[in-house]
Amino acid sequence: MLKAMHMHAHQDLREMHPEYSRILTAAVINRKFRDMLLKDPDAAVSRGFNGEKFNLSSREKNELSSLKGLSLSDFATGLARL
Question: Exposed, middle or buried, 61 (CB in 10 Å: 0-12/13-18/19+)?
């Protein structure tokens, strides 16, 4: 059962919106961005990372904002469910 759950979660992450993947990558490699993302996802995404912007619709930004205050792991899981 755990293997089936892991396979499902892995599939969800592979099919994730490309911008969500970029956001998670930035959060993994940069503590300052990660801290901002977990505290205020809208501000972090609006500010961008390393001179690059994230291309998200208003709806996607709103959905992302609902994930604040979580651990990075929980944030990633929440993104996979959006």
Answer: middle
| CA separation for the pair 55, 6 (Å, rounded) | 29
Answer whether residue 3 shows pLDDT above 70: no
Contacts of 55 (CB under 8 A, 6+ apart): 19
Q: Write down the pTM of the prediction.
A: 0.77
Count of CB atoms situated within 10 Å of the CB of 36: 17
User: Cβ(73)–Cβ(28) under 8 Å?
Assistant: no
Q: How far apart are CA 31 and CA 37, in angstroms?
A: 10
